[in-house]
């Protein structure tokens, strides 16, 4: 209902007004962007007992009352002028903004019941720091039972504690509070201007507040969010009291303060003569609190004249915001930053290296106060990619939470920082012990697959259960979403080196919104977020294999470079940087997407959780084939996976994949390398360091091969082929007896035969694919900007 044109008109009028307001002229030269928002802001009411106002504070683990004018307490209540429509549609209102609007008006009788801007800023208060709710509901008086239900609903949300920046108020983040409160029970720390608590005392106040919250709700999730100074204090709390915090989000954290110009320049600022210092807060205000942005986005747009009146009334308040850091306060806040950095970065970041609380770092590229763009990767390097996620805001300033279009909740959801309940229909998994990959992780994985996708252009088919018709896509493949939460077991052939695995997992995310859970070799499924990856089994002091080096050079800049083992220098670099190894997800990690080490125990857990499980019975033996074994299956002779599927009433879906094994030739296989007089001993020594997937490999009773050996064959790339997948007709185990050996063997044989039939079907039908060859396919997709069509299934 509020158009962008109206907002732009108001912004222009505000800028014109500011030209005639010398006090605020400097702020008008800062970024003139405004943030479009549909948030509805109303007027808060505060009912006094007597004539005074105070707020609740936490100090030394106890609840105290900090007197601001008198000894009475603030209580939120409903507005007495609520309309019938407002009675039906309750809205949250921003205490900051409402107080700022009212500060420019004359004090009315109604305003006497409400908190003032000076009271919120704590200009006349000496402390201590106190917590308050920055949003209140606009509502009529309600029955106690209704109030209690609302309180219970709020307490079911995770607790979010906001720690402010250098200003100590939280004003700069006020535009984010409405969206944060939808996901969290939000409270804000306020540090009065004259408070002189050091960083250790402030952290102790935060600790005491969390402990009290934990006493009431021991299992409640607690998150921290802080910007600038608040970001550094959030890191401080996480490092000192990791048992109290679930996650933290830090925006341009001042943990880089000690590597900025401020340790040198900062102590000189309070020494500036009083008459000159008076202009300093105004000079800093565009990067601390941008008044223009706050004014243009804070007031709900409606009647133009009424809106303009409100914004005009805010002008005196904007001047107050720019002067909330007096000389002595600035000196004290700079010391807080110095002490926080000293603690966080002590001993070259030793505390960060051992951090236990996951942290999301949001950093701006145009931060002119501190080197935030450099700080984010530094923190990730020290903490590791599993404990530290980063989000870079291109073109954003230090005051990132005020930037146009900024939505911190959206960024948190991108990194899966907001927990989804298991019953959430949009959750990718039904396993409560597994955190599905975040939107950001999926995006990065897809970026890593982009080149291979352009070369191999994978296509998928599935088979309808009712008539056996083959159709395009995965519509005929059941998952727990359409089976009444029954588990589904996908069983297929392992192509050599599994270059198609990433495409398979990604397609289920795209078409079915399901994260398939792989049962993988321990090397593939290990959690390598801190650099302990799949190929890091050799000793650092061993010399590099010259044959591997030659193969890397030969396949450089080709699609098959991904198959070559990384150099020792690259592995060391990745370990230092905390970067996960490359894999089927183009720099991602199979474990991030739900893979677990193959074992009966893990198989049991996944099926019990009603997951969609991915199983390659051929294992390493099938993934590292020998010469002349293209598309052959090497499955164990014992049908154990069928028994487990029957136990949990699972649906088995056989599938076949072709294309990868036609894209290279094997020049040396495991037998060749183990028997080579030069390489044999070295290969055998490395093989013995790799953990085994099975204690006993029953496969050797069927193909007379030796137990599985993790020895990668040496490949020579040929012309890249298109990848094809077909999911066969589902096999329902409902009502079967897992102790019926004949029935179990029949299902096992049916599953294996179905996979073999699928392989033959795809090999035959791909010959009729008009874009089977890579050159015309790449040209078509480049010109049409869509995937090339394939053969018509039958």
Question: How are the secondary structure elements laid out?
Answer:
Blueprint: H1 4-19, H2 25-28, E1 45-47, E2 54-59, E3 62-67, E4 75-77, H3 84-88, E5 91-94, H4 95-103, H5 117-121, E6 130-132, E7 135-138, H6 144-155, E8 159-163, H7 177-183, E9 185-190, H8 199-216, E10 222-227, H9 229-240, E11 247-251, H10 262-265, H11 274-277, H12 280-288, H13 291-298, H14 304-321, H15 327-344, H16 346-353, E12 359-364, H17 372-383, E13 388-393, H18 408-414, H19 439-456, E14 459-463, E15 470-472, E16 488-492, H20 501-512, E17 517-520, H21 522-525, H22 546-554, H23 568-577, E18 596-597, H24 600-608, E19 612-615, H25 619-623, H26 640-647, E20 651-658, E21 664-668, H27 670-675, H28 680-689, H29 700-703, E22 714-717, E23 724-727, E24 731-732, H30 741-765, H31 774-784
Helix pairs in contact: 4-14, 8-9, 9-15, 13-14, 15-16
List keywords for this structure.
single chain, 794 residues, alpha/beta, 7-stranded mixed sheet, 31 helices, 24 strands, 39% helix
Low-confidence stretches: 13-90, 297-304, 310-322, 527-542, 572-584, 695-703
Please, how many helices?
31
What class, by secondary structure content?
Answer: alpha/beta
Mean of pLDDT: 75
Q: Could you estimate the helical fraction of the residues in percent?
A: 25-40%
Q: What is the CA-based Rg, rounded?
A: 31 Å
Percentage of β-strand residues: 5-15%
Number of E-type strands: 24
Largest beta-sheet details: 9 strands, mixed
User: Termini distance?
Assistant: 52 Å
- Molecular shape: elongated
**How would you classify the quaternary structure?**
single chain
